[in-house]
Design a protein that fits this description.
- The chain has 325 residues and is of the alpha/beta class.
- It contains 9 helices and 12 strands.
- It has a single domain, classed as Aldolase class I (TIM Barrel), CATH 3.20.20.
- 28% of the residues lie in helices and 17% in strands.
- The protein has a 12-stranded mixed β-sheet, with helices on one face.
- Helix 1 packs across helix 9 and helix 3 packs parallel to helix 5.
- It is globular.
Length: 325
C-alpha cells in the first residue's frame, strides 16, 4: 500500500532530488549574477542512495535529479547508476540546461536515465543569450537532437514564459514539435525572494498559451498518476505536445504528488513553503533507514493544502536554483 500520504489524502509518488545548487548559466529570472553560494557540502553518493532507498520504500516511483545544473557534478553518472539500482524506482528523469547533453546523452541512457527535461527559453540564438546570459545555444540544440536520437522514453523542453521576451513567439515553439516527439511546457514565472521587480515586469499568465492552443485545435490530455503539474495538449498534425504549468491557476495544488529534497538534504514540502526538515543526520548509516522513513512520514503532516503565492507569500525560497525548481 502507498505510504506517502498527507493529511489532505494526497499521495506522493514523485521525488525531485537536487544534487547541486551550482549552475553555469545566468538566466535572468533565476541567477542573473551567476551562482555565488557554496560549491561544496552537497549530498554524497552513499547519502543519496540511502535517501532514495527510504523514499522508494515509502512509495516513490518516479525520481527526478535536478540542480542547479546536475551534470556539473563529476560523479553524476555514478549517481544515475546508483539510484537506478534502487528497487521500486520505476522512472528516472533529470532536468538539465543541456550544455553538454550532446556529449553525455549516450552515457546517460546506458546508465539508466529514462527521460530528459531541457531548459530552453528561446529558439533563436540571440533570444537565448538575452535570457540565459550564455552563448552555447548551438550546443543546447545539438543536445536536444542527440537525446531524441538516443531514444529516451520522453524528451521535454521547459520554457519560462516571459513578457516581452518570448511570449510573442509561441508559434515557433508549436512548430518545433510538429516533427519532433517532444513536449514543450510553458511555465509561468513565479515570485521568489529576490525577483519582485522582475516578476512584475515579466510575469504573464499561462492563459495566453492555452487560448492560442485551443484556437489552433489542440486538445487537453489526461494526466497519469506520476506526472508533474503540466496540463498537456495534443494535436493530430503534430508529433509532440505543448504543456502549461500555471501555478497561479485555481486548484493547482489539489493534485500535488511531489516532494523535494535539496542538495544538502533538506526535505522541502512545497517549493514556496518555509523551512526544510533536515534529513541529513539520518543519512550517515544504512542502519538508520527505519528512523529516516519515520522522520519523512512525520514531516509530511506539516505540508499545507496549497501555496500562498496569491497572497504575496512565496515562502523563504531565495531563487529556484536553491531548491531544484
Amino acid at each position: 500500500m502507498h505510504s506517502l500520504r498527507d493529511r489532505f489524502n494526497r499521495r506522493f509518488s514523485y521525488l525531485r532530488l537536487s544534487v547541486t545548487e551550482v549552475c553555469n548559466f545566468r538566466c535572468e529570472y533565476c541567477l542573473p549574477q551567476g551562482y555565488r553560494g557554496r560549491t561544496r557540502g552537497f549530498l554524497e553518493l552513499d547519502e543519496i542512495r540511502r535517501l532514495v532507498t527510504a523514499f522508494a520504500q515509502l512509495g516513490t516511483r518516479k525520481l527526478r535529479l535536478t540542480g542547479g545544473e546536475p551534470s556539473l557534478r563529476r560523479d553524476f553518472l555514478d549517481i544515475v547508476r546508483t539510484v537506478r539500482g534502487v528497487p521500486s524506482i520505476e522512472r528516472l528523469a533529470m532536468t538539465t540546461n543541456a550544455y553538454r547533453l550532446a556529449r553525455d546523452a549516450d552515457a546517460l541512457k546506458a546508465a539508466g536515465m529514462d527521460a530528459i527535461n531541457i531548459s530552453l527559453d528561446g529558439l533563436e540564438a540571440e533570444q537565448f543569450r538575452r535570457i540565459t546570459g550564455d552563448r552555447r545555444f548551438d550546443k543546447v540544440m545539438a543536445g536536444i537532437e542527440r537525446a531524441l536520437e538516443v531514444g529516451f522514453d520522453r524528451v521535454k523542453v521547459n520554457t519560462v514564459l516571459l513578457r516581452g521576451l518570448n511570449d510573442g513567439a509561441l508559434e515557433p515553439f508549436f512548430e518545433f514539435v510538429r516533427e519532433r516527439p517532444i513536449s514543450v511546457r510553458f511555465i509561468e514565472l513565479m515570485r521568489t525572494g529576490d525577483n519582485q521587480a522582475y516578476f512584475e515586469q515579466r510575469h504573464v499568465g499561462g492563459s495566453l498559451v492555452r487560448e492560442a492552443l485551443l484556437q489552433a485545435g489542440w486538445q487537453a490530455q489526461a494526466r497519469a498518476a506520476t506526472d508533474g503539474p503540466a496540463v498537456e495538449y495534443a494535436h493530430p498534425e503534430y508529433a509532440g505536445r505543448i504543456g502549461i504549468i500555471a501555478p497561479y491557476s485555481p486548484g493547482f495544488c489539489d493534485s500535488c504528488n511531489r516532494l523535494r529534497v535539496t542538495a544538502r538534504g533538506g526535505l522541502r514540502l512545497c517549493l514556496f513553503g518555509t523551512g526544510n526538515a533536515n534529513l541529513r543526520p539520518l543519512l550517515a548509516r544504512d542502519d538508520q533507514l527505519e528512523e529516516l522513513k519515520a522522520h519523512i512520514m512525520l514531516s509530511l503532516f506539516d505540508k499545507g493544502s496549497a501555496h500562498r503565492l496569491h497572497r504575496g507569500d512565496f515562502g523563504d525560497t531565495p531563487h529556484l536554483a536553491s531548491t531544484g525548481g
